Amino acid sequence: MMPVTQRLLVLTALLSLLLALQVQTAPIDTEWATGLIHRAKRSLLWRWNTLKPVGSGCRDHYECGTNYCRKHTCSFYKAQQA
């Protein structure tokens, strides 16, 4: 048989774990949720570092560090207009 203090300690630990799980899984009210999600603002250096180098694949000009995407490849020069 466990002493009363030990029983009380075990009961308190189990109850606190149960309450912590309940708080963690509680849904956020819709009024609060609208202001919680913010897009992080990246610095200019971070944006330059994430741009693709010459020779890598691209779909649009804004993906390349040179701002020129030619035939799905980052290039130094703009595509020639026919």
UniProtKB/TrEMBL annotation:
Keywords of this entry: Antibiotic, Antimicrobial, Cleavage on pair of basic residues, Disulfide bond, Secreted, Signal
Keyword Cytoplasm among record annotations: no
InterPro entries: LEAP-2 (IPR009955)
Coiled coil start-end: none
GO BP annotations, alphabetical order: antimicrobial humoral immune response mediated by antimicrobial peptide; defense response to bacterium
Cellular component terms per the entry's GO annotation: extracellular region
Subcellular location(s) of the protein: Secreted
Function: Has an antimicrobial activity.
Entry similarity comment: Belongs to the LEAP2 family.
Protein name: Liver-expressed antimicrobial peptide 2
